[in-house]
């Protein structure tokens, strides 16, 4: 039997197709066999991310340039050692040298959680129980930058000063705190670079400051005066009014007391001023709050007594401009009455003079 060339080509094509099909099947089988392994690896990564601990039990000096010192709990200041671990409750500070070299230090709370001090700056870490999930520190003074994971859960990192506390932190934020030389208070500039924070002070609270938001907070040492000035971005500040409202809880059916706050939209150049004084009778603290817009105009004014919700009304107090107008009206009325009386007296005197002459 003679086989033509075309038939030979056909047989060759069939053979090549069989080989390619076999290779493809083996590749698919290998891919299917590898797929579960890849799935396991992905699941392991997700589980590792969920179980990731942003903090270590000790803090570590990651960087030390210039004059950098540490003070262990109950100890004295000493030179810090780069790469060494220190217990929570330790204080850290950087200082400027005589040659003009600014001190700089990076204190690591975890793999991706760091605090950077520059120039004349100091912080104090809070001593906590071993295994506690959260961390806390105080900005004593100076320029301090905090970098945390953007996905950090609420309540895991907290920053304190003498006038306010910052919590629910994530991302990067900076604090520049200046202590008054005469000891009459301090001023802190709070800036959110990325992420967000929440901030609470006496008689005010901020539920969220986002990226590029900046606020300047000034407080006296006796806590009798607080000033808040917006410097960048817009965010909401809730001011106490000393008033509560009974609201029904739809789940339990019970009434719960809820604070009635004054919501003020803080923008650049807007100002909030809070005065506090002790009443001569009873000794309770009386609070006066005033808000000003970017043009310096008075927007809101409230006066209330602490822990006297039954007498506080939260109503707007008459603004100084309105008082001036009222005083002006009274003065105008008094002037008009005086002129009328003087005119009548003069008329009476003229009449008497004419009678005498006759």
Can you put this structure into words, describing what you see?
By secondary structure, this protein is an alpha+beta fold. The chain has a domain at about 320-345. About 25% of the residues lie in helices and about 40% in strands. The chain has helices spanning about 5-50, 320-355; strands at about 60-65, 65-70, 75-80, 85, 90-95, 105-110, 115-125, 135-145, 155-160, 165-170, 170-180, 185-190, 195-200, 205-210, 215-220, 225-230, 235-240, 245-250, 255-260, 260-265, 270-280, 285-290, 300-305. It has a 21-stranded mixed sheet that branches. Strands 18-19 form a two-stranded antiparallel sheet. The model is unreliable at about 1-10 and about 20-50 (pLDDT under 50).
Q: What's the order of the H and E elements?
A: HEEEEEEEEEEEEEEEEEEEEEEEH
Mean pLDDT: 81
Structural class: alpha+beta
Cα end-to-end separation: 172 Å
Number of helices: 2
Tell me the helix content.
Answer: 10-25%
Q: Strand count, sense and closure of the main sheet?
A: 21 strands, mixed
- Rg from Cα: 36 Å
Q: Detail the poorly predicted runs.
A: 1-8, 18-48
Estimate what percentage of residues fall within beta strands.
35-45%
Question: What is the general shape?
Answer: globular
Question: Quaternary status of these chains?
Answer: single chain
**DSSP summary, beta strand count:** 23
